[in-house]
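pasting for ref
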Amino acid sequence: MGGISVISNLLYVILLFILLGTDDHMVKIECRAFFVFGDSLVDNGNNNYLLTTARADSPPYGIDYPTHQPTGRFSNGFNIPDFISEAIGSEPTLPYLSPELNGEKLLVGANFASAGIGILDDTGIQFINIIRMYEQLQYFQQYQQRVSGLIGADQAQQLVNEALVLVTVGGNDFRLYDLGARRVMVTGTGPMGCVPAELAMRNTNGGCSAELQRAARLYNPQLVQMLQSLNSKYGSDIFIAANTQETHNNFITSPEAYGFETSEVACCGQGPYNGIGLCTVASNLCPNRDVYAFWDPFHPSERANGFIVKQILTGSTKYMDPMNLSTIMALDLKLTD
């Protein structure tokens, strides 16, 4: 499920191409279509419609969502796409497989993500029915055909070209670039060795897995170099590197600075660090989700997701190279004036 992809995926990729607006506190954009691709970090319910065990449609998932009901999000409440939708002044995207995604709701965009997928097509094979990355892209092409039938081919193409695209798994970002993306924010690996599941499985006495952390330290600088090379090739800052490892490390090394009581123990789970098995109604459940950096053995809590998106929007060059999303949006706004 998404936990497998959190550990096995080498990177998250965020692709953003947007028409922008501003306010006094934070750069926002006019409502534009929003498309989401990836794994359980961003799945908002597609797997609810599939015969798979990689799903989050049972309590206590969704306990802090506005409806207080499970939605298919691997979170106690909002996930990363929800916070981005909120920041851009848009309603949350519906899962592409939802029967409610019809008519004018198609113009809001769609979420194609599926818990359990990874960079490789055989990642998550144990879950059988999940929407692998190539299938998500096929659904995206199908979506464009549906929208063309609704508003015409030219308007559909404009809607896609002006949209915001979020991808949380690698390997297909350049294919989306070919479809028109001109601001591609690529997020490196988080601290894979520090999630509660790893602490429980590897019995490190609360310490992060040195092996996985070393892999992340080797990978992330090479990612930045690759993106810089691509920008030189295209003669523009198309690709932006987001240092999610640094963002997560803040929670892990100094949880109290962010109002968290722990970054080791998951709110929902069982066993050491609540890091064993799935989050179910039979699991241990913390009374205050806001003081836990991790919701379940693999996924950040709603509050942690909010901090991640804040760094994406306004983080310094320590987190965003060469610029953050607010700066990108301000530059793009000038280009449209």
